[in-house]
Design goal:
The chain has 320 residues and is α+β, with helices and mostly antiparallel strands. It is built from eleven helices and twelve strands. The protein has two domains: 6-180, Jelly Rolls; 207-320, Homeodomain-like (Arc Repressor Mutant, subunit A, Orthogonal Bundle). Helix 3 packs antiparallel against helix 4 (181-198), helix 5 packs across helix 6 (233-240) and helix 6 (233-240) packs across helix 7. It comes from Paenalcaligenes hermetiae.
C-alpha cells in the first residue's frame, strides 16, 4: 500500500510555500501550519481520471490545515499509516486505516495530520457524482447530496467498499485499465455505485425494482444485438427502462453475475467462435478480438486463457 502511485509523483519538498501551493493546485486553497518541533518532508502522488482523482499524500510532519470550503468536489480520505483529525463545526472525528472520511462541498472544516500520517485520497467530481446518482436510481436529487463524515472500513458494507478501493488504487497505480476510455468509465461507475449504496447520505433511496425474467431477457437480447459496440450498464438499463441499481440486482438474482461480467462472457464466446472459424493466414487475434468488442487486448488474452485453457493464438493456429 505504501508504494501506491509511485509512478505519479507530483511533489517532494521541504518548503512550506511550495507544498502549500502545489497541494492547493490538486485540492483547494488552504493555510498550512507546521508544529514547531516538526519539519516538512512532503510527498504527493496524484493521477486524475475523467471524473476522479486518485492520490496519496504524506506531509512528514505534524501539521494543521485550514482549507477553504471545497467547491466542485467531494474528498474521500483514508490514512494507511498514522491518523488524522477532522474538525467539523462543533464535532471532531479521528480516523485511521480502519475508518475513512468523506468531506462535502461547501463544508467548513479543518484537519490535523500526525507526523507519520500517509493517506490515500480520492477527489470526486461533484457534478459527475450527481449525474450518476440520477441515472443510477432513476430519480432526481432532493436538494444537495451530503454524506456523513466517517465510515468504518473493518466491517459490513464498509469492508466491501475498502476492498474495492484497494483494487482500484492498485489499478490506477500499476494497471492499464484507466488508460482505456470505455473501461475507465466502467471503473468509475462501479466506484460511484458502491459509494452511493454503502456510504450513508441524506437522499431517500427508492426500493430496488424487482425484475421479471422477461426484463432480464430484454437486457440479454440487447447485449447480444450490440455485443461488438461499446456497452455500459447505464446504456443497457436505459434500454430496458430501469435503474442501473435494479439491473445489477436482477442480474445477480437471475444470472448470478453482474451485467458487465455477462457482456465479457458473451464476447469471449463470440471471439472463440471467430478464432475457430478464421483463416490464420488472413486474420490475426488482435483483429478478431477488436471485432468482438474487446478494447483491452492484454486483459482479453488473460481472460480467454483462463476460460478456454489456451492462448487465443493457439486456437487460431489450430486452423492452419
Amino acid at each position: 500500500m505504501h508504494q501506491l502511485l509511485q509512478r505519479y509523483a507530483q511533489l517532494h519538498s521541504y518548503d512550506v510555500d511550495q507544498v502549500q501551493h502545489h497541494v492547493a493546485q490538486v485540492l483547494c486553497p488552504h493555510h498550512l501550519k507546521i508544529n514547531n518541533a516538526s519539519q516538512l518532508n512532503t510527498h504527493l502522488y496524484y493521477r486524475a481520471s475523467q471524473r476522479l482523482g486518485w492520490g496519496r499524500l504524506r506531509y512528514g510532519a505534524t501539521v494543521h490545515i485550514q482549507p477553504q470550503p471545497l467547491t466542485d468536489f467531494y474528498l474521500l480520505q483514508i490514512p494507511i499509516q498514522g491518523h488524522e483529525k477532522i474538525q467539523l463545526s462543533h464535532q471532531s472525528f479521528y480516523y485511521s486505516s480502519q475508518r475513512a472520511s468523506l468531506l462535502n462541498p461547501n463544508q467548513m472544516f479543518s484537519m490535523q495530520h500526525s507526523q507519520h500520517t500517509d493517506k490515500l485520497f480520492i477527489r470526486i467530481c461533484k457534478t459527475s457524482l450527481e449525474h450518476f446518482f440520477q441515472k443510477h436510481y432513476q430519480r432526481p436529487l432532493q436538494g444537495e447530496l451530503l454524506f456523513t463524515p466517517v465510515l468504518a472500513l473493518d466491517q459490513g458494507a464498509g469492508a466491501s467498499l475498502w476492498r474495492l478501493l484497494q483494487w482500484q488504487f492498485q489499478e490506477a497505480s500499476e494497471g492499464s485499465w484507466f488508460e482505456q476510455a470505455q473501461t475507465q468509465r466502467q471503473l468509475e461507475d462501479t466506484f460511484f455505485a458502491c459509494l452511493l449504496d454503502v456510504w450513508e447520505h441524506n437522499q431517500l433511496l427508492p426500493s430496488i425494482q424487482t425484475l421479471t425474467p422477461h426484463a432480464i431477457k430484454q437486457a440479454k437480447d440487447y447485449i447480444h444485438q450490440h455485443l461488438t459496440e461499446p456497452l455500459s450498464v447505464t446504456r443497457i438499463a436505459q434500454h430496458v427502462g430501469i435503474s442501473t441499481r435494479s439491473l445489477y440486482a436482477g442480474f445477480k438474482d437471475f444470472v448470478g453475475i453482474s451485467p458487465m461480467q455477462y457482456v465479457k462472457k458473451q464476447r469471449l464466446h463470440d471471439v472463440h467462435q471467430r478464432l475457430l472459424q478464421a483463416d490464420p493466414q488472413r486474420h490475426t487475434v488482435t483483429e478478431l478480438a477488436l471485432l468482438a468488442g474487446f478494447s483491452h487486448l492484454g486483459q482479453f488474452a488473460a481472460d480467454y486463457q483462463r476460460l478456454y485453457g489456451v492462448r487465443p493464438s493457439v486456437t487460431l493456429q489450430q486452423n492452419a
